[in-house]
Amino acid sequence: MKKKSFSMLLTALLTFSVVLSACSGGNNNNGTTAPAASSNEGTNTVVAEKEAEPAAPTEIKIMLPLNTSESPPDTIKNEIEKLTNTKLTYQFFPADTYEEKLNASFATGSLPQVTYLKNQTTFIQMKEAIKDGQFWEIGPYLEEFPNLNKMKPEILNNTKVEGMLYSLYIGRPLARQGMIYRKDWADKLGLSAPANTDELFEMAKAFTEQDPDGNGQKDTTGISDRNELTYGAFKTVSSWFGTPNAWAEKDGQLAPEFTFQQYIDTMDFFKKAREAGYMNQDFAATSKTDAVNMFTSGKAGLYIGGSMQDIDSLNKDLIKNFPDAVLDTHSMVAGPDGNFAQWMIPGYNNVVLFPKSAVKDEAELKKILAFFDQMMTPEISNLMYWGIEGTHYTVEDGKAKPAEDKELIEREVKGYKDSVIGEAETNGMYESYNILPGRIHAEQLLLENVKVGVADPTAALESATFTEQGVELQQIITDATYKYIYDQIDKAGFEKEVESWKSRGGSKIIEEFNASYKAQ
């Protein structure tokens, strides 16, 4: 036993001697002994080699709406995965039918770990499920992630449900809305950008009746609109008429926008324009894609609503067909009372949720939030928003200048661009370097819009009935609005539909919003 112990001790001493010899680093050319520090370097190298073993990539499935005709290739995704040590599966579905897919996936419990909604309307639809505890509350975790913690509190507050935060937001300028129009047509006809709603109507009329394309045929119209009252032309024109942004005070309490005379005036504007042929007759059944195609194929001269920043993509497609076409943007259109107004969003146009059916535990949630925290770094946000530097954009004057190949950007980058959370002020991505005069003008108008911006006073208010029935009840008003414009009902018929809205739950919504409003 002693022999064995001595043998083990001898072996240990010999081993220690060898280690000391190896750590000495050998002899230098001058025969001096290497400094003792090299012993530490050797030890650090061993530790570093152990630490260098890469962690397994975090696997994340992401569902989001697609605003292009085809899903993007993996060019950008592959780069994101390298930089974030993730394995990403993107499930893209066409924006026009996204709500159907979202609802079907929710009903079957097949939502992925990361679920983007489509807009504020789909967010309202999901609020009841959020209250039921079917999505993770993420508010308590944000302070653990330095970049996510930079998101704007005032916008986060607008997305809270019963005072708790479940979502990350995709930031947008508060008031991007306005009009994109054929300046070359206007110049030819001697028209300036419309100063008020009357001049807007006259421009639509002239673009229809005065052969602005000069081909000798009556084959153009004024407004190209789509089946969307909020993000199409209707709400933007309505704000110019002075209609409140969703709700406003009336007779001492909050009331919905469609109970105001200005809403009726807006319907009259579109009814008159449609009857005269100054807009597409079937706009209530026209998709966004078809409305865009109508404009870029030279059949219409006014594209109203949405974002004035869309001028880049509209211009790209238009000049393929008409190389000499010139577009411009405009938003300062006064109402009948001479005042300017522009409706504002609550600082976001979409949110992302994390279903408990797909994210099994807190540890998995934190790994996913860590990915989004990385997304809010300039390196990742620029990659996702602008693409690969030198391929999809270059940097000039500290701003991103998109490459000439717009189709490449549309194909490879657009799908990911629409999913970037935060905004330039919080995620550090480049602002746009613009050379198109109409886009430069648009950026100036965004600042002007905010000066006359009108917020939705109910954005951060609670109404259980609105959460549960709001989307369904809004359809009553949407249908009635279209019927009025299509001359299928008159004002009395519209007011009857408003009463139907009230009797089926609308009155309760008014009551609840007002109670929440007074409790602020």
UniProtKB/TrEMBL annotation:
Q: Where is the signal peptide?
A: 1-22
Indicate whether Signal appears among the record's keywords.
yes
Listed A to Z, the keywords are: Cell membrane, Lipoprotein, Membrane, Palmitate, Signal
Q: Which PROSITE patterns match?
A: PROKAR_LIPOPROTEIN
Output the Pfam families linked to this UniProt entry: SBP_bac_1
Can you tell me where the transmembrane regions are? none
> What name appears for this protein in its UniProt entry?
ABC transporter substrate-binding protein
